Amino acid sequence: MYKRSSTAGLLGFTLTALAMAIASERLSAAEADSTKNTEHLEVVGQAASIDQALKEQRSADSIKSVVHADGVGQLPDENVAEAAQRLPGISVERDQGEGRFVSVRGLGPDLNSVTINGTLVPAPESKRRAVALDVLPSELVQSLSVIKTLTPDMDANSLGGTVDVQSLSAFDHKGLFYTGSSEASYDQNTHQTSPKFSGAISDRFSLGDGIDNFGVAAALSWQKRDFGSDNVETGGAWDFEQGAKLQELELRDYDISRERAGGGLNFDYKPDDLSSYYLRTLYSRYKDSETRNAASLEFAEPQAAGQLGDAEGKRKLKQREETQEIQSYVFGGERMFGLWTLSGQAGYSRSSEDSPGHIASAVFEGSDDFADSGFYDNDKPRPIVGQGFYNPSNFSLDKVEWEKQRTTDTEKNLRLDLARDYDLSGYASQVKFGGKVSRRNKDNDLDAWVYKDFDELGFSDEQLNLSGFQKGSVDYRLGRFGPGISGGSIKQLIGGLDRDAFFDETESRVNDFKIREDINAGYLMNTVDIDDWRFIAGLRYEGTEFEAKGTGATDGEFQSTETKRRYHHWLPGLHARYQLDKNTQVRAAWTKAVVRPTFGQLAPGFVIDDDEASFGNPDLKPLESSNLDLGIEHFMGRAGTVSAFVFYKDIKNFVYNTDLAGTGAWTNFSEAHTFANGDSAKLYGLELAYSQKFDWLPAPWNGLLLGANATFSRSDAEIKGFDAASGVNRKRSIDLPNQSDTVGNLMLGWENDKLSLRLSANYKSDYLYELASINDKAHDLHVDAQTFVDFSARYSLTKSLQLSFEAQNLTDEPYFVYIGHRSYNGQYEEYGPTYKLGLTFTHF
């Protein structure tokens, strides 16, 4: 039985927190007044970090949430994605237990954008726009903002929000600052220990007649983490027409090594009070090595749990290494000319993913069927099978798929802004206008080979027997697994063959593409302060030129494809902020946004094989959203705030996967899988947040910190499709994919001048992951709710030396995908807790 978290409980806790805030404010006010002029050097700095973030959030023109690095220049989590998930309305998609992609207010990662120092980060992966933020080590980041309402001078390319990463600047510290850390982490699942080292340094220098007007900051980080996971999955192979019977299952064991290395070198120059210039550079390299052993059973007939029959058995291996790199270079500046302010920025970013030649799949088939085979447990199925399934001599090599792939995504932009302050009937005002040009190119190159029919190539049964490829026994937490497979032995066998004879031209050519996306933008906006009001009104224009080139295959015949399109968007926006009193403000915003479909959805390649087809859709329309936001924020002393926001999004042209078989040009096809635009979708919700340091309480309770946030959202969307079984068009109401109804965080902390403790929990309710056909809701894939609990402690041995301990995933939370109902497995995966011990030296 899987753990469930209560939505009502989260709401109840948040409302209790709001009541506590109101009750405690009078008590804290006097204490805050008596201490506000006293400065303390905080080595630990949970409260200092929260307080700095809240100040930035409070003064922002947009609705946004912020995480700041603490006193030792580090974000409070392992990587940028895991730091972001602590913010209101934010959840993350995990890969092998590590936070990677960020969802904002229930909208999937591909519907949000990521910027580093104000310039867009392109995506390393071939099919996605989403950027995996675990590529960025937390040590390179000074602050992280999630901007949820966009002003007209910002790119309008996110429906949920824009994740903006700011790297270290010398002006973040006074004078010389340097820090160095070393860490060892222990993975309980694989019993492996991994190292990590990082450091940062910054200082200011005097150039010309200025004093401390030139700053240099640098940061480096390196980590190699060895870990693994254990998995059992069905892929949705349930036959519900025969009473929930299973067709196949597969056990998977992952052995993973991830190496992260990153560096940044930043320069700031402020020659006078009227001008400033900067250069921001960042490089990050992420190397992921994975060995996946698999053992599968495919039943001759679908079987219920406990039922026995004949089954075909297979042993499989995937062994690959991929390297993702992100480079970002941003040069910009600002200059004041009287009432005018001129600012500009030039940015260049390049992401890539390189997967050299590797074993995409090696399959060993059982020589005979395994009689009296079955499974038990619908939600976490394990095989019932005889001893022969674990004997390597009963399996022979059938096929090897070999692949290599290279993806690059480059974005260049140039932005210019001009603003003028002026008086509007006695009220301070500013008019601002500007433009931006962006040029983006995404290229993908895949080569594939398929080696099979080994007996016809002269290999003997003995040469193909798994016994000759065996590599020990797999360590598998979920039960008995059997022999592992040596990738080196497989490479040796196929290395002597003529690779040209096994080249898969169809797979190689249809997955290659070149996509160009040029965006020209301009805007005009005006800001005015009228008594306690601040208004921002403006209009943004974005014109897009799109081009996609690729190859299609029809029954083995190839043809080039090319699509060119132009489209335009006018995007008005209105923001208002009203200061109720010194510490309370109300915000409202009406904005428009546009997001282009993913590159996988727009891919120009296609495959038509007899009566089956699959293809991308480069004619997809961009997603458009009209957004309403309304909320109130109240700030209470140090590190204290309570807020509530409601939001509503009307989304047009959302994209979903569909089967066009039986319609139009695909009338005589049994399958025609592609992507289509839906008419409209609605997303609405409530976002609550609270944090406070109880420094008005008597010692030792004055070190307590409490933080909680919860987001409750709902979505409504409708898809259309042809039901081949009934011969009619159908409609179906769905939730938006990747949208969780409830996301929440709870943090309990305590700190003094030497010790800092933090216990945190992150909750995300279940969500729709992937749609089945229009008339087959029972086979929709859903991801189950998850609650991750982490603990961290830091102790200052001296003023400059700090010892740290972290424990992640304390409750060993699994990743569970189910088919239609929680009783039926799609995928179940366990990771185990991770423990870390570190030492940090810091000079302020």
Would you write up a description of this structure?
Belongs to the TonB-dependent receptor family. Residues 297-319 are annotated as: Disordered. The strands form 4 sheets. The chain has a 22-stranded antiparallel beta barrel. 8% of the residues lie in helices and 60% in strands. With 844 residues, it is mostly beta strands. The chain is globular, with a radius of gyration of 28 Å. The longest helix has 29 residues, at 7-35. The protein is built from 7 helices and 43 strands. The two termini are 50 Å apart.
What is the element layout, followed by pairings?
Elements lengths: L6 H29 L10 H14 L4 E5 L11 H5 L5 E6 L2 E7 L8 E4 L2 E2 L20 E7 L14 E6 L9 E11 L4 E14 L8 E20 L4 E2 L5 E28 L2 E29 L5 E29 L2 E27 L3 E7 L5 E3 L10 E30 L2 E26 L8 H4 L5 E4 L9 E3 L1 H9 L9 H6 L2 E18 L2 E22 L2 E25 L2 E12 L3 H4 L3 E4 L2 E4 L7 E13 L5 E12 L2 E5 L11 E7 L2 E14 L10 E20 L4 E7 L7 E10 L3 E10 L2 E4 L10 E3 L2 E11 L4 E8 L6 E5 L1 E10 L3 E10 L1
Parallel strand pairs: 4-7, 23-26, 27-31
Antiparallel strand pairs: 1-6, 2-3, 4-5, 6-7, 8-9, 8-43, 9-10, 10-12, 10-42, 11-12, 12-13, 13-14, 14-15, 14-16, 15-18, 16-17, 18-19, 19-22, 20-21, 22-23, 23-24, 24-25, 25-28, 26-27, 28-29, 29-32, 30-31, 32-33, 33-34, 33-35, 35-36, 36-39, 37-38, 38-41, 39-40, 40-43, 41-42
